[in-house]
Specification:
By secondary structure, the chain is of the alpha/beta class. The chain contains 15 helices and 12 strands. Strands 3-2-1-4-5-6 form a 6-stranded parallel beta sheet. Helix 1 (20-29) packs across helix 15 (391-402), helix 4 (87-104) packs across helix 6 and helix 8 (247-258) packs across helix 13. The termini are close together.
């Protein structure tokens, strides 16, 4: 029996937890001890409520970052914006993570969007894996490559930014008496990287030798949610599945649904769902709990998200056009990938004509339908979509995690 520790340090959504439901179950069935150190312990308790897993709260900082990069280009800028630009604060966080890991004594570490935890674990000699999307598992290069745009255009500035960040990180490591990094990319190069995405949706389209695993969302997780119109699907009434986190995006969707012939199932946090006006409730079914994705994606015609990577990827895998209503950097990157594939649209929430564009998308989805269906068919031809999401993906990941442990 091995002690396997999964860390989750950054990010907010269920997408940092749900991919591990089936994986954890498989690891427990193999008699391993699994500990999940979660940024949001309450969300973790909700997702793993029926699983006998040891949950701990992550030692994350909620201090405001000094001098954030307003228009991030590379993962170096992402690190800057989470506190890596302050060596004293970073050293404090490294020590906190190190103390947590020393107490647990892991045999294997799995990092879910956890750069500070990776720094703290650099002195551990156990097996280490990075799991996540293209955004959370950056391509380890010198300099750290841009997440969008022309590499050569940004190269000189990125070299400078990487050098400055490396100096700060090494000052923090020195305070902790930890070995120094030679390059910033060493932080990511040390660990085996497994990408929980599809190649077309990787933010780094020039990544070399990416190990793409597919979408690990559990197919049967969630609750059955009924459409307002019942089981009969009227071809003249588009069915919209929406997974939205913000009140602004919920109000936008509700306005469009009220003025079109569409109906919707809307999933999201309760504060966002409360933004739906009463006059829209006869056409919008509210789902506070996660819905069964396989069922909902079989029944809906189109999907609207805030750019949740797993939901976006799974929707395209099922051949559904996606509208991404983005409000921050990572969401916008997901939206840009969808638009580049012509499988949907990207609408920054601050865009003035977002209501008009979303209405057009919902009422005329055929413009993007062919591309989405062709995307799905490509994976049908690669062994079937079931081999790219759900239990089969989780089984492969669990096998990789356990390699050398069982």
């Amino acid at each position: 029996m091995a002690r396997i520790v999964i860390t989750w340090e950054l990010g907010q959504g269920h997408g940092h937890l749900l991919p591990y439901v089936d994986i954890v179950n498989i690891l427990l069935e193999r008699n391993h001890d699994v500990i999940f150190i979660a940024r949001d312990i309450e969300k973790a308790r909700q997702v793993f409520k029926d699983i006998n897993i040891n949950l701990r709260a992550a030692p994350v900082s909620h201090r405001q970052t000094k001098n954030p990069v307003l228009k991030p280009v590379s993962y170096t800028h992402v690190l800057n914006n989470i506190g890596f630009n302050d060596s004293d604060m970073l050293a404090t966080q490294i020590r906190a993570w190190h103390e947590t890991l020393i107490e647990i004594k892991p045999d294997l570490l799995v990092f879910e969007h956890s750069p500070t935890a990776m720094l703290a674990a650099s002195v551990f000699r156990c097996k280490k894996l990075m799991l996540g999307t293209g955004f959370t598992v950056p391509s380890a290069e010198i300099p750290m490559p841009p997440l969008y745009g022309d590499s050569e255009k940004y190269r000189n500035q990125l070299l400078v930014d990487d050098k400055n960040m490396l100096d700060i990180v090494n000052r923090a490591l020195k305070q902790c008496n930890f070995p120094q990094l030679i390059a910033l990319s060493d932080l990511f190069d040390e660990n085996e990287q497994l990408l929980l995405t599809l190649p077309e949706l990787d933010h780094y389209q020039n990544r070399r030798n990416g190990k793409y695993q597919g979408i690990a969302l559990p197919a049967s997780y969630g609750t059955r949610t009924e459409w307002k119109s019942g089981s009969v699907n009227d071809e003249n009434k588009p069915r919209v599945f929406a997974y939205l986190h913000t009140e602004t995006s919920v109000r936008l969707l509700a306005e469009v649904i009220m003025h079109t012939n569409a109906e919707a199932i809307l999933h999201g946090p309760s504060d966002a769902l409360n933004a739906v006006p009463d006059q829209a409730l006869h056409k919008i079914c509210l789902a506070a709990e996660p819905v069964t994705m396989e069922m909902i994606l079989t029944e809906c015609d189109i999907v609207v998200t805030n750019g949740s990577h797993a939901t976006t990827a799974l929707s395209l895998l099922f051949g559904k056009p996606v509208a991404v209503l983005s409000s921050h950097f990572e969401q916008a990157l997901n939206g840009m990938r969808v638009a580049a594939l012509n499988c949907g649209i990207h609408l920054p929430l601050q865009q003035l004509d977002s209501s008009i564009q979303l209405s057009r998308f919902i009422q005329q989805p055929a413009i993007w339908q062919d591309a989405a269906e062709n995307f799905s068919q490509g994976y049908v031809n690669q062994g079937g979509i079931n081999s790219w999401y759900g239990k089969m993906v989780s089984q492969r990941l669990a096998d990789t995690v356990c390699h050398g442990l069982d």
